[in-house]
Write a structure and sequence with these properties.
single chain; mainly alpha; five-stranded mixed sheet; binds protoporphyrin IX containing FE
Length: about 350
C-alpha cells in the first residue's frame, strides 16, 4: 500500500509539473485564503453539477471540485469521477487539508489513445471525506503501538517452581491459608502436625483445670487445737509465777525431804486418786503433777493420763518441745529406780 501511494504521489507530481493545469493556478491563488470555499465550476450551460448523484450536466465533461478546509464537515463533498475511458478529466479531485497532506489513492489511468494529457481517475472506493481520508491514511500506515496499561508485573500467584536461575530466585511467599485445609484429604497430609493437638485434647479431660495447683501430700493438714479453757488465775504465766517462787513447795512432802528413789511400784500407787497425789516419771525423774493439773493447757484429764506411771513416751508424742524440766522443777520428787534398788540403798544407809 505504501508503495502504491508513493507511486501515485510521484505520478501526480510529474503530471502537475508537466501539464500545469489552470485549476492548480487557482488553487495556488486561493491557498492563502484557506477558509474560502471555492464554488464548483459550472458547466458550459451554467448549471451546477450534481456531485452527489454523479450525474453530469452539459457535455458530460467533469470538472474537479476543490475543497479546502471548511467550517463544517458537510461541505466536504468530493465528486466521483466517471472513470470512463477516453474521457479526459481536466484535473483529479483532490481534497486538501492544511494540517495533514494526504492524497487520495488514485491509480494512474491509462493514457488516452489520442495522446492527450494523462488523467487520473479515482479508485473504485475512494474515501468520501477528509475524515475517511485520514482514516485510510492511518490505515495505510503501520498501526501505532497500542497504549499499554499493563500494571507492574506482580509475582506469579501460582506456586510452581520458577524456571529462572537460582541466583535470581527469591523465596516464595508464605502460602496463605486456603479453604483447602478444611478438606480432609488435604489435612491428612498434616496428620503428623495435628497429632499433638489431638493428644493434648485427649490428655485434657473435661472438668480438669490447668490452673488448679497440683495435689501435694507433703504437708499434713493442721490438727484442730486441743487446748481447753483454763480457770481465771491458771494461765501459763500464772503457773510460771507460782513455780519459780522460792517459798513455794509443790512436792507435798515433809519439809527437808531429799529426792526420793521411786520404784515403779511406788509410782504406780501415786495416781491422784483416793487422796493421793499424782506422780509421773519423765526422763527418769519423778514429778508430783497434782499442783499443775489446774494449769495444764490441754486439760486436767489429759495430764492425768500419765499419772502413776512413766509418761515419757506419751509426753513426747504430744508436745516434745515443751520444757517440762523448767516448768516442773519445784514439783520434783526424786529419781525413778528399778525395783529393789530403793531397798539396796536403804541397806547401804543401815550399813
Ligand atoms: C506432766 C507434764 C506435762 C506438762 C508440763 C505439760 C505442759 C503442756 C503445755 C505447756 C502445753 C501448752 C502447749 C502449747 O501452748 O503449745 C500443753 C498442751 C497439751 N498437753 Fe501437756 N503437759 C504435760 C503432760 C501432758 C500429758 C501426759 C498429756 C496427755 C496424755 C498432755 C496433753 C496435752 C494436750 C492435749 C495439750 C494441748 C495441745 C494443743 O495445743 O493442742 N500433756 N501441755
Amino acid at each position: 500500500m505504501a508503495i502504491v501511494g508513493l507511486s501515485l504521489v510521484l505520478a501526480s507530481v510529474v503530471w502537475v509539473v508537466f501539464s500545469r493545469p489552470p485549476f492548480l493556478q487557482r488553487l495556488f491563488a486561493s491557498f492563502w485564503s484557506p477558509r474560502q470555499i471555492e464554488q464548483p465550476p459550472r458547466d458550459h450551460d451554467g448549471a451546477p453539477r450534481d456531485t452527489e448523484s454523479g450525474k453530469e450536466g452539459g457535455d458530460g465533461v467533469r470538472s474537479p471540485v476543490i475543497i479546502t478546509t471548511t467550517e463544517s464537515a458537510d461541505d466536504e463533498k468530493p465528486t466521483h469521477a466517471s472513470g470512463t475511458p477516453g474521457v479526459v478529466a481536466p484535473a483529479p479531485p483532490t481534497v486538501e487539508e492544511p494540517s495533514s497532506q494526504t492524497t487520495p489513492k488514485a491509480p494512474a489511468a491509462q493514457p488516452s489513445p489520442n495522446g492527450s494529457v494523462p488523467s487520473f481517475s479515482l479508485s473504485s472506493s475512494p474515501p468520501a471525506s477528509a475524515a475517511a481520508i485520514a482514516r485510510s491514511a492511518s490505515a495505510a500506515m503501520p498501526p501505532p503501538a497500542p497504549p499499554t496499561f499493563s500494571a507492574p508485573k506482580m509475582p506469579d500467584p501460582s506456586f510452581t517452581t520458577p524456571s529462572g536461575s537460582a541466583s535470581s530466585m527469591m523465596p516464595p511467599p508464605p502460602r496463605p491459608p486456603t479453604l483447602n485445609n478444611l478438606n480432609p484429604a488435604a489435612t491428612s497430609r498434616n496428620n503428623n502436625l495435628a497429632a499433638p493437638n489431638s493428644f493434648a485434647r485427649s490428655a485434657r479431660q473435661p472438668g480438669t483445670s490447668t490452673l488448679a495447683p497440683p495435689p501435694t501430700h507433703s504437708s499434713k493438714p493442721a490438727k484442730p487445737s486441743r487446748k481447753v479453757m483454763l480457770e481465771p488465775g491458771h494461765s501459763p504465766l500464772d503457773w510460771a509465777r507460782l513455780a519459780q517462787s522460792p517459798t513455794s513447795d509443790l512436792r507435798n512432802l515433809p519439809a527437808g525431804t531429799p529426792y526420793l528413789k521411786v520404784t515403779p511400784s511406788q509410782l504406780k500407787t501415786m495416781t491422784g486418786r483416793r487422796g493421793k497425789d499424782a506422780w509421773t516419771a519423765l526422763g527418769g525423774r519423778v514429778y508430783n503433777i497434782t499442783p499443775y493439773v489446774a494449769f495444764h493447757p490441754g486439760g486436767g484429764p489429759e495430764l492425768l493420763r500419765c499419772a502413776g506411771r512413766d509418761g515419757t513416751r506419751l509426753f513426747g508424742e504430744i508436745h516434745p518441745w515443751v520444757n517440762y524440766e523448767g516448768m516442773l522443777a519445784s514439783c520434783m520428787i526424786g529419781m525413778l529406780v528399778e525395783e529393789g534398788e530403793e531397798r539396796k540403798s536403804e541397806m547401804d544407809d543401815m550399813d
